[in-house]
Amino acid sequence: MKYAWIHQHRDSFPVALMCDVLDVSKAGYYAALERPPSPRARRHERIKAAVAQVHAESHGIYGSPKITQSLAQRDDLERACRNTVATAMREMGLKSRVAKAFTPTTTQADPSKQPAPNKLDRDFTAPAPNRKWVTDITYLLTAQGWVYLAVVLDLFSRKVVGWSLGRSLETTLVAEALRQAIESRRPVGKELLHHSDRGSQYTSDAYRETLRTLGIECSMSRAGSCYDNAAMERFFWSLKHEWTKHENFENLAAARLSVFKYIETFYNTERLHQTLGYKSPNQFEADHAPVIAA
To answer: How many helices (H) and strands (E) does the chain have?
Structure first.
């Protein structure tokens, strides 16, 4: 293998230098050039040819697992295990063109905590403001890494009543969004249902104690059921597809400014919602204010 490497790079570095670095003799290198390839070397070349052929036939889609399976099903090509196929692909610079995008995990349950029952039960309607709030966390990419957005949404008008953006998924992120919501809306705790997933941030002692102190009833989605918080999922879909996926953020501050513009100057104030009779959340609440007060 050392001799093969030297031969491969003979036009880039002096042979004598490479032999010295790799601790082999020049005489041994030149003698190896005259010897026929070993059975192992010949098999390795057949494997590389087979891997390249299957990769090309798959239009560059297959990675090492599927190429390995494809070779195992064919009699006309050299077979190899996955590790060998992966090595051959690296040597030839071949990759699957189906890139696996990294998706940060925002929901991690704490097995030591008892989640609240699902009292919302997918009823995303509310008779008045501050009767049902839903909340969740999503992620945004910046040039300096991932940042995380926690949002509180009022189901009556689909208005964002609290949000917080930061680098950490600690409980302080969701606690800040809740604090904003409480300060801006001043809800009557005993009239409000708060719904979230079972993430450790929401099942934490500090967060649950805040809800209990204010008399707010707690509801949580069932395990692995995104539909239990569909209204929140829909908001995040709108945020990303309408706004953030069309922008590049240099840092946390740039992302925060963009989210502020979307939520405070467009979504809450101008964006028309089909479920609200094509009104914005603010307009919907303003139109229903006299009815609610009565």
So the answer is: 12, 5
Q: What is the DSSP secondary structure assignment for residue 222, as one 8-state letter?
A: P
Pick the last residue of a domain from 92, 122, 155.
92
- The amino acid present at 274, given as its one-letter code, is Q
Helix (H) or strand (E) holding 268: none
Residues 147, 274: one domain?
yes
Are both 162 and 248 inside the same structural domain? yes
Name residues of the chain where pLDDT drops below 70: 1, 97-107, 290-294
CA distance 96 to 85: 13
CB contact at 8 A, 5 and 91 = no
DSSP letter (8 states) at residue 225: -
Q: Distances from the Cα of 266 to the Cαs of 59, 221, 263, 277, in angstroms?
A: 43, 29, 6, 17
